[in-house]
Amino acid sequence: MHDSNLIRNFSIIAHIDHGKSTLADRLLEYTGAVTKRELKAQMLDDMDLEREMGITIKANRASISYKYHDQVYTLNLIDTPGHVDFHYEVSRAMAACEGVLLLVDASQGVQAQTVANAYLAVEAGIEIIPVINKIDLPAASPEDTALELEQVLGLPAEEAVFTSAKTGEGIKELLDAVIERIPAPQGDPDAPLRALIYDAKSDPHRGVICHVRVVDGVVKRGDKIDLMGVGSTYIVTEVGQCMPKPKALEVLRAGEVGYILAGIKTIVDVNIGDTITLSSRRAGELLPGYQPPQQMVFCDFYPGPGTETAELREAMEKLWLNDCSFTFETASSDALGIGFRCGFLGLLHMKIIQERLERESDVNVVQTAPTVTFEVALRDGTVMRIESPSELPDMSHVEHIGEPMIDTQVIMPADCIGSIMQLCLDRRGVHKKTEYLSPTRVMLTYQFPLSEIIYDFYDKLKSMTRGYGTMDYELTGYKTGDLVKLDILVNGIAVDALSVIVHRNKAIHRGRRLLIRLKKEIARHQFEIPLQAAIGTKVIARETIRAYRKDVTAKCYGGDITRKRKLLEKQKEGKRRMKQVGSVSIPQSAFMSILDPGD
Predict the structure, then answer these.
(1) Which CATH architecture has domain 194-278?
(2) Once rounded to an integer, what is the mean pLDDT over residues 98-116?
(3) Which pTM was predicted?
(4) N or C: at which end does the chain have fewer Cβ atoms within 10 angstroms?
């Protein structure tokens, strides 16, 4: 007998490093879903990279059974990532749940991602259970943290559950709270089938595994199903749940979370957020899906030493089947050959993709500096998006350039407020508000251009706040700025791969720094090489690489001075002719040094 009142669907959300994956381990162990022998740390983080870096990258799920007042309940748990780059994974997990456990570290208090994730849960209209974790730490102050949660997010302090995921303290109370406070799923088992695909992953042997939340109806093996958004039809070969290892079941019913296998070949054939229904008894309308993830940061990947372009393409296609949240298209550069222009959700996402390419497919990758998308309004009224300075049309046709803006919340100790405000000012930040979360912690809200913070803002924030500062941001749209294209000329010729789009106020400083770097990297030639930074036709900075000079007067001693002068003039003429016909070879290291994110 299926009773949806005995099901609870919930996910664990928190700031990075507040103990989500450890809490998931403890819940699995406490309910006997895994034996002591099978249990390992970060049980649900199945990617090597996740275990090594100690972070969750992909949301993972497990179904567990728990006995409460002589009734056996099925709890479907989803462990989500905490890092801002994987924000979209969290929002997708919430669509499959009726409640969330909002985890807060008792020694660190409310952090930027805690606030952002709580707002996501409020928008989704689901129940929030505040959980104060790590109460076993010497520096823990759980009561103060609960009061801070109440002050910042309005979650009553007395409703907070105190736990230690490490020692297992408070786990029983937490499971009881899940059953008492998270509502049972609503859904009509007799209605036509509607199941939401909230995640999918490609398995080389079995095709695509669709992770679904069944909203209405039932689905079983042998059913003929339609993917409503894509319009394709398949036969179900298996349904089941992750316990946490996949376990095949007879049927999935309304309110349950599980997986469906239907011989779908590649992940390209599935849209996340799509609705599955039965071909014989179609549902009337689709479930509300998701916004596709928005790429925020772009950079180029080129094949490194010993790697061919074809190998790199194959490696990227293989990785894309597992993580379709990054994009790539072919790009070419005079300096680096043929490569790919890739879009990522953020800098950590970019680093992880590069690491996975090199590790899983054994390819070498040369990566350029990250850039953002700009919006260019032309004089004829058309608007275009460009991802690299080389795509910018002639400035005489451009009305204005817009850059992506973000709203940023920075949480930090109150004694660091002066230095952080100065850092924000240097990065063209516009102050919006200051809120005191407690006498010692403060939250600043700023609006920034995204291009100002994608390099090293986070690193600087961490070092200025002794590691206690945290930030969260969201894209708010494009804003017209006084932006210019900074061209770098080597020996009078503009080199496309070296140009950048910068704010006019920072152009001279940036241009000068780029030229000093180039000067170190380009070898001296037989003739003098001018390096120039220019906006349009106006040169704003210059460095000169001196020529090699042979001492032509060495053997000329005695006699009139005109003899020496004649030799020097002859040398000068030779250098001038050489400069006209000679070409400057720019080594790859020069391109890489100029693209160093430290700039």
Answers:
(1) Beta Barrel (2.40)
(2) 82
(3) 0.69
(4) N
